[in-house]
Amino acid sequence: MAKFNIKKNDTVIVLAGEDKGKTGKVLKVLTDKQRAIVEGVNIISKSAKPSAKNPQGGFEKIEAPIHISNISLIDPKSGKPTRVSIKREGKKVTRIAKKSGEEIK
Predict the structure, then answer these.
(1) Backbone angles phi, psi at 69, to 5 degrees
(2) At residue 21, does pLDDT exceed 90?
(3) CA 77 to CA 73: how far, in whole Å?
(4) How far apart are CA 65 and CA 72, in angstroms?
(5) Percentage of residues in the chain having pLDDT higher than 70
(6) Helix/strand/coil (H, E, C) string of the chain?
(7) Are the CB atoms for 82 and 75 separated by under 8 Å?
(8) Which of 35, 49, 63, 105 is 20 to 30 A from 29 (CA-CA)?
(9) Cα R_g (the chain), whole angstroms
(10) How far apart are alpha carbons 105 and 85 in whole angstroms?
(11) Strand 35-38 relative to strand 23-30: parallel, antiparallel, unpaired?
């Protein structure tokens, strides 16, 4: 299984695709498919059948997954995209932004 530097609740920027340049919070990471769902990015219209919860039916706007290679973490200090390094101290693992050296929480 692949390891990703992006986790739930991280702030990321889209590097490629229709929503290039948009930022958002990661809602979910799908490790098996190498994708992530980012808030407000890659919005699709999904048709919904009438149900007890939604008697009218119609269309729902939801976020679709985006490939993990098309998003990058945002540096907490500069607000620009950055790569990530991993620092290990015993059992404690911290993620560090390459651009500024700041710890990513």
Answers:
(1) -75, -15
(2) yes
(3) 12
(4) 14
(5) 99
(6) CCCCCCCCCCEEEECCCCCCCCEEEEEEEECCCCEEEECCCCEEEEEECCCCCCCCCEEEEEECCEEHHHEEEECCCCCCEECEEEEEECCEEEEEECCCCCEEC
(7) yes
(8) 49
(9) 17
(10) 13
(11) antiparallel
Partnered with residue 74 across adjacent β-strands are: 81
Q: Model's pTM, two decimal places?
A: 0.82
**Which residue segments constitute the domains of the chain, with CATH numbers given?**
1-74 (2.30.30.30), 76-105 (no CATH)
Closest CA to 21 of 70, 55, 94: 70
Contact residues for 85 (Cβ-Cβ < 8 A; gap 6+): 95, 96, 98
Instruction: Note the residue count of the chain.
Output: 105
- Is the pLDDT reported for residue 54 higher than 90? no
